[in-house]
Amino acid sequence: METRVIQLNNLRERREVESFLLSQGLDMEEDIEYTVALYEDNRIIGTGSIAGRVLKSIAVDPNYQGEGLSNKIVSLLVNEQYYRGNTHLFIYTKPENRNMFGDMGFVEIYTVDGQVSLLENNMNGINGYIDSLKTYRRDGKIISSIVMNCNPFTLGHKYLIEKASKESDFVHIFIVWEDRSIFPSEIRFNLVKEGTKHIPNVMVHKGRDYIISNSTFPSYFLKEKSNIVEIHALLDLGIFGEYIAPTLGINRRYVGEEPYCPVTRKYNETMKDTLPKYGIEVVEIPRLKDGDIFISASKVREYIKNGKLEEIKSLIPITTYDFLMSDKGKVIIDRIKMSDSRH
To answer: Which of 12, 31, 258, 265 shows the smallest number of beta carbons within 10 Å?
Structure first.
């Protein structure tokens, strides 16, 4: 048996892995950064990949199952992650595979029945995050929350937070933490903190690993691709409802109405159905407009891309505009102008 690191920019090698995964009912996702494969007689009999701190696309030929090859693949991937400096790792998998990965040191965070399980290799991972939140619990009849990406922070975001703050005793804001946005997570976090420091009953939190972004949710093992958004939402909302909300006493969640994006709209619909089961009321607020235009971070990025910096003044707080005019902000402006990404 031979172990090879796949050269992902080599079309032939990549297609070999894609073909093998397809034969196992799996897809090879675009965000994969590193792949190993086990070969027997120059034929792939097992493979696994890395994307960020997630281990994914782990599969073994059925004829070789029971020979410890899954353990070997996971061990190779974990060693590579440690070499990269990543020690806190995650696996999304089919629920029937939970025990297999449990034997390799991964513990379950949450499972959407019959669909997906999320596991991590840190016994104190989710519990450590929850413990870090306990000190921020506040008393009150209505304790609200908002989950935001803020790429960047707009007047629409500010309006939603201010409305929640007026209707609540306290508001916890969670910033999506994966760096898949053109504005890095620390910058997005700081823009929200700066833009809300005039509101006394608001606290901004880093979502860390437990507010799951749709852009990082894997779907390679899901048969029904039409259900991906709903399954992602059920996983994300389940973690929020089971761990985060009770820790902080959250009983209301605010969300902005989504006039454009069908993915976000479906997430919102799933939220309205799911969170009340945890005793959390969902309040959907109509999107703020600037004239006939809905204010959105994507519209801000569009204006920046097209060099319309004067036009963005009516869409963002002065704190966001001042950042964009800074040296760090100008770097992001240049990046937006050169980027083809929607994010």
So the answer is: 12
